[in-house]
Amino acid sequence: MTMDRDERIKMLLEMQEHPEHYSEQELEQMLHDTEAQELMEATALLKRAMKHDEFTMSGQEIAGEWQRFAATHFARQVPRRGWLKVAASFIGILLIAGLSFAFYWTTDSRQRTTDDGQRTSMVNGQCPMAADSLVRFVDVRLDSMLSIVGNHYGREVCFRDEAPCELRFTITWNRRQPMATFVGSLGEFDGLKLKEEHDTLFVESVETEKE
Amino acid sequence: MTQKEIEQLFRLHYAPMTRLARTLLYDVEEARDVVSEVFATLLGADIAPKNIEGYLSASVRNRCLNLLEHKSVRAKFERAYTLEMKTESLPATDDDRLKRLMAFAEQNLTEQTLKVFRMRHLQGMKYQEIAGELGISRVMVYKHLKQAMETIREYIIR
């Protein structure tokens, strides 16, 4: 191929814009030309430098990415606990189950009367991604549920202790309502305290009477 | 490693790792997947690797290079993927190098040349679209891109 330098550069630019107009062989041939390689490398480096220069990521974006990662990788992990711990907490779980049941009937029946849109269900940690305003969580862990809710409102969720993470809820969430409405509903559950501070929702367990 | 330990590392290193992945792959979703995969490798680890920052950067770089290696020759032309495929020639992080290159480009290329390059390679515009938007000829678009390539090439080989 006898091409002068300008023609070769022009061809390289054409190949960059429309590689589909050239055969694999022609493209490979250009890649084996030392000068073309250097020019392509220069293009790649300047593009990388510009990408590097324009990159920004806020703390809130990182928090959102963490929620996404945690929801994917931790939501359905089986908690590792010893048999003794299970036995010791058995009575407490029974109590919480009873309270959850009561909470389900008080909260859900109230919300059922106001449902006027389509529902999306989330069962056992499967994430709803539909555009419906109403999301129905069915027997979903609190940490999974709040990671989705928090992500929706751009809030970070921080569990001050691990006990409430494994609580499971059946509840309907209206995504069009402010976060405070949903948090208020959860706050009615005995043994659970939720508090919004700036961009973070803090969750902790509180002592309840066991007798 | 516990969820809490991984969360701490995530909050500290997510941004630089994503920046590295995006400067190699140019693609937001691909970069996100790579970084997520690297953090997922920590889930099964009993303890954090020594020099965690180096480990994370090297893992991101290697996964990106592996992806690039499998790109077609057409994609390499079309998206201007780096040809520096040998791991020894591409350091785990090359922040300083890219910053110096950007400063050099801003000093030695005209604003118009940088603009044409951005429109072509970052916004993916065709030559004719660039010419139309800037009110210049297609030949001038070629000249700006040629100028950018040659100037940066001189910088690299000197």
Briefly say what this structure is.
Chain A is an alpha/beta fold. Helices cover 51% and strands 17% of the residues of chain A.
Calculate Rg of chain A over CA atoms. Answer: 28 Å
Number of strands of chain A: 6
Radius of gyration of chain B: 19 Å
**Biggest sheet features of chain A:** 3 strands, mixed
Question: What structural class results from the helix and strand content of chain B?
Answer: mainly alpha
**Poorly predicted ranges of chain A:** 109-119, 123-131
> Which ranges of chain B are low-confidence, i.e. pLDDT below 50, for 5 or more consecutive residues?
none
What's the pLDDT, averaged over the residues of chain B? 88
* Oligomeric category: heterodimer
N- to C-terminal distance of chain A: 92 Å
Strand % of chain B is: under 5%
Portion of residues in helices of chain A? 40-55%
Count of extended strands of chain B: 0
What structural class results from the helix and strand content of chain A?
alpha/beta
Overall geometric form of chain A = rod-shaped
Which protein chains are joined by the largest interface, and how many residues does each one contribute?
A-B, 42 and 52 residues
What is the element string of chain A, with H for helices and E for strands?
HHHHHEEHEEHEE
Termini distance of chain B? 46 Å
- Counting DSSP H or I runs of 4 or more residues, the number of helices of chain A is 7
Strand order of the largest sheet of chain A: 1-2-4
How does this model look, in words?
The complex is a heterodimer of chains A (211) and B (158). A three-stranded mixed beta sheet of chain A has the order 1-2-4. Chain A has a three-stranded mixed beta sheet with strand order 3-6-5. With 211 residues, chain A is of the alpha/beta class. Chain A is 51% helix and 17% strand. Chain A is rod-shaped and about 80 Å long. In chain A, helix 4 packs antiparallel against helix 6 (142-153). Chain A has helices at 5-17, 24-31, 34-54, 59-73, 83-112, 142-153, 179-187, and strands at 119-123, 134-141, 156-159, 168-174, 192-197, 200-205. In chain B, helix 6 packs across helix 8 (138-157). With 158 residues, chain B is mainly alpha-helical.
